[in-house]
Model the fold of this input.
Amino acid sequence: MDMAELNQWANAADSFVWGPVMLCLLVGTGIYMTLTLHFLTWRNLPYALKSIFSKESRTTSRGSGDVSPFSALMTALAATIGTGNIVGVATAMFAGGPGALGWMWISACFGLSTKFSECMLGFKFREVNAKGEMKGGPMFTMKNGFKNKKAGILMGFLFALFAVIASFGIGNMTQANSISTAVNATFGVSNEISGIIMTVMTLAVIVGGITSISRVSSIVVPGMAAFYIAAGLLCVILNIENVPHGLYMIIMMAFDPSAVEGGVLGTITVSVMNAMRYGVARGCFSNEAGLGSAAISAAASTTDRPARQGYISMTGTFIDTIVVCSITGLTIASSGVLGTLGADGKPLTGVALTMAAFSHNIGPIGSYIVSIGIILFAYSTILGWEYNGEKAWEYLFGTHKYNLIYRVAFSMVVYVGATQTLDLVWSLSDIANALMAIPNLISILVLAPVIKEEVFSYQKVIAAEKAARAGETVAEEAVQKI
Done:
């Protein structure tokens, strides 16, 4: 079998595993959990967002763990906010039309419940290794949470195996390739030099483990997100008169593409099924709700209740898709570049489409902003996925003693990704992600009663905290009157 045949086989397998059955399982699990939890994940979203911005979320004074709840969230977001927010959104909107962004929003709404569930379970069933470090995630949820221990151990092993594979693929080589490509195109630096620099930088950070990774992520993730969001908002504001039409296309083409007419329909796919397929797939791929990777980082958090960490962790889906992906999508939809042709006569897609949208609004600097965004997003993804892969690696070997081998190997593979063509790696990574999601989603459905009990019990804590804050407010107002 030559490389062309291997690529063809991988692409076919990729299309199959991310087909209708997988998408129904992803969205169906989110819908089921949202209904089971009586929409509490939606109703408590303001509480969750307020929690991540509180001073307490940045401390380790409550409960036990390795890092603060905020740092755990930033580590998860480091792995989540990546090239999918720039390239993935553009690809989805080209292949499925502007309506794909609408389906990304829908999948994110139900993904809140999925992300909450997997992260809450990851925290609840975590363990402590011989070094005193936390280790958790879907593999430990299955191992410790299932009544059928053999089934739990088997599914946990499969999840960990696919997580390690995915960490070297989508979490490493593909991200490094995106960085080297962007740096070469924008600044003229060779792929080899970029690969060496990234390898050294990656090893320097990950050798310190979760503490070092979370420290860097807590700086890089908020900074890069703020930078990209500010640039995107500027694009939207400068093109504000076209935003209503862009929103109209997003909403209408998500459900009825025939209601929208114009040249944009001539070069992009415009069926509801395609909009749904690409929107849901890229949405879940971007925010990773259902894949289980965020639950590994959540298990390292220092807090007192699984549900508390679940609420903090689920804000990652909101930030990733509803905020960051929307910035990219709205910029593209309102710019009028969707469906236009490039210099080679082919329709713009992927990063070229995003660059064109930004440049249309703010000039040539838009391409530089997108390039910098890709560099920062992809590098943070490498760091976040290293931790996820390392904990899966530790689970497979049953000890932390070989973690240093993984860290060194992971860093070396960064160079390979930066300097090689990775068509096959992209497909294999997509497949590994899907195969991670299957056991994780099954575990959520199996343990739904445990999740429900924890959520309803925690409602009393939320009510007590709100009452306490209300009492403090009344007391402050009384003092001011005096």
User: Anything to note?
Assistant: Residues 149-187 form the longest helix (39 residues). Residues 261-267 have pLDDT under 50 and may be disordered. The two ends are 84 Å apart (CA to CA). The beta strands are 127-128, 134-135.
